[in-house]
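Hi R.,

Here's the chain you asked about this morning:
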Amino acid sequence: MSMLQQQVAIVTGATSGIGRVIALALAKEGARIFVVSNEPQKIPETLAEIRQLSPESEAREVDVTSAAAVEEAIKAVQERYGRIDILVNNAGITQDNLLLRMGEEHWDRVMEVNLKSVYRLTRLVLRPMMKARYGRIVNISSVVALTGNPGQANYSASKAALLGFTKSVALEVASRQITANCVAPGFIETAMTAKLSPEVKQAMLSRIPLGTMGKPEDVAAAVLFLVSEAGRYVTGETLHVNGGMYMS
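And here is the predicted structure, written out as tokens:
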């Protein structure tokens, strides 16, 4: 039997990049996936691929910066499945600029998507998880939460905030057998990094002791560990997936 058989997993930002690979990895292990995405053009293809592994999966276009939209999505999950076992908060954006040139709208937008959406979604799934006395919450942070990065004060701050948020949630709900953890990826091969020049890529690789960029599958494997029975005794932690670029 697959390790997540019949469990229900919400994955945000699940129609591209790391989020899509995470959703597929959980579906492969038997989870029913509820895809949350703001990329409507990608939803049909993604859902079709996920349903090949998990036929009962669903998808919805959701603006995670809208409290009403998030509430409606969580209600839809509960009505469809009657349970919520796993939440993976993966949705995130960048609005890069040096701080002196960073407008408040760029700061606020990143915080709304990367941080406040995590608050909204986590708060709403906790009630059914606490009632069931079971749950797994994984927040996708970043290596820059620990190292910082020029031009990414907003992004770094949003991802660093997730670390403290996750520890607090872990302490609040541990007695109900709910775990909350972070995964902090380093430089991962995605469509975004594929556009970088060879010089920039080489500079990035020089900072990674293992000498290669990671793959989305590496991040998905870390998430899978944390939501599976193998990770049942891990909570409030940050699992670094960065090839040695940062060591805590």
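One quick note: The chain has nine helices and seven strands.

Cheers,
M.
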